[in-house]
């Protein structure tokens, strides 16, 4: 949970300082890169916490079935 707070604070800070028409390299280049990095970090954090990357969720497909076969003989 600490990482979520950290990522969100960094994302909001980068978003706040983003100004694409600014003269400063910080505001028009580095802050948008920070927004992109922290959005990716947030997505990865959500995937890891949701368990989509675990071995337990690999078998069974989206709806819990085995994903194959015709169901008959």
How would you characterize the overall build of this protein?
The protein has 73 residues and is mostly helical. It is 58% helix and 0% strand. It contains 2 helices and no strands. It has helices spanning 2-17, 25-50. The model has no long low-confidence stretch (mean pLDDT 79).
Q: What would a concise description of this structure say?
A:
It is built from 2 helices and no strands.
Low-confidence parts: none
The structural class is: mainly alpha
Helix content: 55-70%
Radius of gyration: 20 Å
Average pLDDT reading: 79
Order of helices and strands: HH
Q: Tell me how many strands there are.
A: 0
How far is it from the N-terminal to the C-terminal residue, by CA?
50 Å
* Helix run count: 2
Shape verdict: elongated
Question: How would you characterize the largest beta sheet?
Answer: none
Topology:
Layout: H1 2-17, H2 25-50
Salient structural properties:
about 70 residues; mainly alpha; 2 helices; about 60% helix; about 0% strand
